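Tutorial handout. Part one gives the primary structure; part two gives the three-dimensional structure as tokens.
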Amino acid sequence: MDLAKLKRDQVLKVELRDTEYVFNTTWGLFSPRGIDNGTYQLLERIEINPGENCLDVGCGYGPIGIVMARLSETGKVTMVDKDFVAVEYAAKNAAANGLTNIDTMLSNGLQQLPEDARFDVIAANLPSNAGKELLDIITQQAHARLVTGGRFYVVTITGLRDYMKKTFRETFGLYKKLNQGRNHAVAMTTRMR
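Part two.
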């Protein structure tokens, strides 16, 4: 076993939304060998308008937030994760892709965000093993942090689709399925008031 080789960053070169990106990642972060299928599905369906302020919850090494930053152009993107290594790599990848409209910070869900932080779009690749309680907390926090008309996009494993449908309807009054694959489901909701 070549330990020195294992300690080196994995470097991913991928095309997302018609743009080439480079991502550095490492063992211990989610999907270090490549962008996972759920993230691809979410990024194919998310709509970001120029100037929108966005939040990537559980950003990992940053592919969702970095694509949102490119699409929002003049908007600001905040990427949060509870893992300090993920936050470090997300910041490194934002810089490597030439994006200056991104802030990264350590946060358990949305808890450590400034009280006045509000967003037009929030996106998350929700972990399947986090427990339904955390999914409820993140959904409630997203509702509180979205502006009126703001959108919350999630990708989950297919087995959580019905739970997210129920949770979105209870919290937002709206659930819209954007994609249903064999392993993942992409959904969104909108804060109406």
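Part three, for discussion. Residues 164 and 170 are 10 Å apart (CA to CA). Helices lie at 3-7, 37-45, 63-72, 84-96, 132-145, 161-171.
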